Amino acid sequence: MPNFNGVVDISHHNGNVNLVNAAADGIVGVIQKATQGQQGVDPTYARNRGRAASANLLWGAYHFGTGSDGVRQAENFLNTVGNPNQVLLVLDFEPNPTGPSMTLEEARAFVTHIREKTGRFPGFYSGHYIKQLLGTGSDPILSQCWFWLAQYGPTPVVPPNWQSWTLWQYTDGAFGPEPHTVRGIGRSDRDFYNGDKAGLLGFWAANS
What we know:
By secondary structure, the chain is an alpha/beta fold. The chain has helices at about 20-25, 45-55, 70-80, 105-120, 130-135, 195-205; strands at about 5-10, 30-35, 40, 60-65, 85-90, 125, 145-150, 165-170, 180, 185, 190-195.
């Protein structure tokens, strides 16, 4: 079954995006940065959520984890997202270039709190960072999250903690396989879904 290239993830770094044009370019789902750390909020989150609704796009939100209290970070995320119904929730777990990075313990606290408040585990986005920390080991809490792989090579390599990837960020708009751009956005992070379009729609409905 071919992978469906219909998801893009964005943040304030993408500037003023046109999501109607993105939808016309084959994008079906958008995952937007909502928060970072205990207090940070992406200034484009609310605006782009409205634009996505106008373009009939599926909506998701991610939190960039930092090295601080995981529960407080989860509260910042949930407060910014608001009603979590029909919103795909994700923890972005990668090295923090501006301060301490989130630890495994803080990540567990974050995803557990999201589960307690919403009834579902969020997705877990990571690449070499989780591979570095877990190695060939496993984590029984984080493994309950669906996995979103960040890897800009031709073949996805999934850490042993997950059986497979659900989403695969194959490019950051510069590195990785083509295409690197989305109409209405420009160079951007693009993501495959592990299945076809109907599968993506079903997955989003079941996890949001």
